[in-house]
Amino acid sequence: MSLCAAPEIREAYDDVRNDKSTTDWMLLEFVDDRKDELKVASTGSSGLDGLKSELKDNAAAFGYIRMAMANDELSQRTKFVLLAWCGPQTRVMRRAKLSVQKAEVKNVLRNFSIEIAASEASELDANSIMLQLKKAGGANYDRQTSNY
């Protein structure tokens, strides 16, 4: 069975991408420690903090987050972030397979501006992520954050 075969994964992905939906993140976790199959573990509308609260120290997971970004007071854009999570207590075999599995996840969660790999919740700082999104976005006319 494929890593991302569950139809709920595509549905959750489409929901996060839908501007009319309040859902702004989803988390994919492995069905169990032995299977290389993902399931939708949770979704929410509480932004990065909501997603971070669901991450486990003993698990690997993938997150997908919709974030609103503004380069100046007149321009508001929606950007998407792909998170590859590998908690500090994740089993060695799961950790070893993660980079290969990430490529398969990217075939389903295709549209994102930046990709973040993290193993500690402290690595997921909203300001840092916004700065990375601005850098990835090209031109930046906001004088307050223009010095990267």
Quick tags:
5 strands, 32% helix, Severin, 29% strand, alpha+beta, 148 residues, five-stranded mixed beta sheet
Mean pLDDT score: 90
CATH-derived architecture: 3-Layer(aba) Sandwich
Q: Would you identify the regions where 5 or more consecutive residues have pLDDT less than 50?
A: none
Number of helices: 4
Q: How many distinct folded domains?
A: 1
| Helix content, binned percent | 25-40%
- Cα shape: globular
**Straight-line N-to-C gap:** 44 Å
Number of strands: 5
Write down the Rg.
16 Å
**CATH hierarchy class name:** Alpha Beta
Instruction: Assign the CATH superfamily.
Output: Severin
* CATH fold description: Severin
Q: What's the short story on this structure?
A:
With 148 residues, this protein is α+β, with helices and mostly antiparallel strands. The protein has helices at 7-17, 47-54, 92-108, 126-136; strands at 25-30, 38-44, 60-72, 75-86, 114-118. Strand 4 (75-86), helix 3 (92-108) and strand 5 (114-118) form a beta-alpha-beta unit.
